[in-house]
């Protein structure tokens, strides 16, 4: 499968290969070989050979019998998983591909409803961040691709370009006290420190203790630990006094916020007078004048993405503008870069299907597997316009 992927540029073929790869990984992770393993423990002669006088031929036959049974068991499990995925696809009206992300749901620990979102977000990033860093580096966000083309573009450089272009678009430069909301590994915070000099202080908040520990370690390794500090905190109740930061920055974290009004309110609260706020986030498309909600198939597509990535209900850039106006924020402007980020998910899918990516998915756990399974839905949503990649900026008076 990995060899086929390396030779192919066909997006649909990548989605099929991703499905087959995850089916194989899920087969192993769900413990389907446990009965064979127990048989092996009960009858060591099946693997090591009997110590009696039955002879070499008997030992060889026993090994072949064990391997045959194990192979049949794994094959049967794969067929069941594949049939379940096909059944989910044919029986649903979701219109957004095979709903086979459900295959790994039995492996994911359920949580109390009150704690599900925050704990789910933390668990997802605790599991997935090491793999992401290994393949993509310390920036956990989209890259920018001019005119929607990835030709000749280095993907890691595209992620840095996303930061620079967003800053230029929002007319932001040389800030001294920065808050990075949903900071991940702190890649943006450290970039600000390098870009704007030694007087910059950047603070990052995330729900993931794994990201905080790793990000602060990276700061030490890069000699930036005196300028950049990451901490575990909830973006909806941040532990900072009012008007503390002259630049409040959120790169792809707003989509995780269950209360968008409170989110915008917190950004405004900690922003200093004349400070600027920049939000880069996933939104659903703006509704048309005669619409009161998204179409049913659009809602179902977004729900599947929400379930996998621990996202609450989506909103539009128009909704954000209304919330900013309600907070008294000024100089509001928005931009849609959906075209410019579209190649990103194709690149992520392709890297997931390298040997390194497949082994990383296996090691990362079921939360990451489920996230990988809905990546094709992001490409679909961006392509058909259901999902919009939006930038919003404003100034606090």
Written description of the protein model:
The chain has 397 residues and is α/β, with parallel strands linked by helices. The protein has 16 helices and seven strands. The chain has helices at 2-7, 11-29, 34-42, 45-48, 56-91, 113-136, 155-169, 187-196, 209-221, 260-270, 296-309, 317-326, 338-352, 355-364, 366-373, 375-384, and strands at residues 177-181, 201-206, 228-232, 245-251, 271-284, 330-336, 387-395. A seven-stranded mixed sheet has the order 3-2-1-4-5-7-6, sandwiched between helices. β1 (177-181), α8 and β2 form a beta-alpha-beta unit. The model is unreliable at 32-53, 84-98 and 110-114 (pLDDT under 50).
Q: Which stretches are poorly predicted, pLDDT < 50 over at least 5 residues?
A: 32-53, 84-98, 110-114
Topology as H/E string? HHHHHHHEHEHEEHEHHEHHHHE
Report mean pLDDT, rounded to a whole number: 82
The outline comes out as globular
Strand content: 5-15%
The radius of gyration computed from the alpha-carbon positions, rounded to a whole number of angstroms, is 24 Å
Tell me the layout of helices and strands.
Elements: H1 2-7, H2 11-29, H3 34-42, H4 45-48, H5 56-91, H6 113-136, H7 155-169, E1 177-181, H8 187-196, E2 201-206, H9 209-221, E3 228-232, E4 245-251, H10 260-270, E5 271-284, H11 296-309, H12 317-326, E6 330-336, H13 338-352, H14 355-364, H15 366-373, H16 375-384, E7 387-395
Parallel strand pairs: 1-2, 1-4, 2-3, 4-5
Antiparallel strand pairs: 5-7, 6-7
């Amino acid at each position: 499968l990995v060899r086929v992927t390396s030779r192919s540029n066909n997006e649909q073929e990548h989605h099929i290969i991703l499905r087959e790869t995850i089916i194989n990984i899920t087969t192993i992770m769900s413990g389907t070989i446990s009965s064979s393993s127990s048989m092996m423990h009960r009858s060591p002669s099946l693997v090591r050979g009997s110590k009696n006088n039955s002879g070499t031929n008997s030992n060889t036959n026993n090994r072949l019998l064990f391997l045959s049974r194990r192979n049949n068991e794994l094959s049967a499990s794969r067929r069941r998983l594949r049939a379940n995925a096909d059944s989910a696809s044919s029986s649903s009206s979701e219109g957004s591909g095979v709903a086979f992300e459900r295959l790994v749901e039995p492996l994911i620990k359920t949580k109390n409803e009150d704690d599900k979102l925050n704990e789910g977000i933390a668990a997802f990033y605790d599991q997935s961040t090491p793999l992401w860093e290994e393949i993509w580096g310390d920036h956990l966000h989209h890259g920018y691709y001019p005119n929607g083309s990835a030709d000749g573009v280095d993907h890691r450089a595209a992620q840095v370009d996303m930061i620079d272009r967003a800053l230029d678009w929002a007319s932001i430069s040389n800030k001294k006290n920065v808050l990075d909301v949903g900071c991940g590994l702190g890649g943006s915070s450290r970039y600000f420190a390098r870009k704007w000099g030694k007087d910059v202080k950047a603070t990052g908040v995330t729900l993931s203790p794994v990201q905080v520990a790793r990000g602060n370690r990276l700061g030490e390794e890069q000699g930036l630990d005196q300028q950049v500090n990451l901490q575990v905190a909830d973006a909806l109740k941040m532990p900072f006094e009012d008007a503390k930061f002259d630049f409040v920055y959120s790169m792809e974290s707003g989509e995780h916020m269950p209360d968008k009004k409170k989110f915008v309110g917190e950004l405004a609260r900690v922003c200093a007078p004349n400070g600027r706020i920049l939000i880069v986030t996933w939104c659903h498309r703006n509704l048309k004048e005669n619409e009161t909600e998204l179409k049913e198939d659009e809602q179902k597509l977004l729900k599947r993405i929400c379930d996998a990535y621990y996202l609450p209900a989506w909103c539009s850039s128009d909704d954000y503008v209304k919330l900013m106006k309600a907070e008294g924020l000024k100089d509001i402007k928005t931009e849609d870069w959906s075209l410019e980020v579209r190649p990103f998910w194709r690149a992520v899918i392709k890297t997931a299907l390298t040997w390194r990516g497949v082994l990383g998915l296996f090691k990362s756990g079921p939360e990451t597997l489920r996230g990988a399974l809905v990546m094709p839905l992001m490409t679909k949503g961006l392509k058909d316009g259901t999902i919009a990649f939006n930038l919003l900026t404003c100034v606090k008076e």
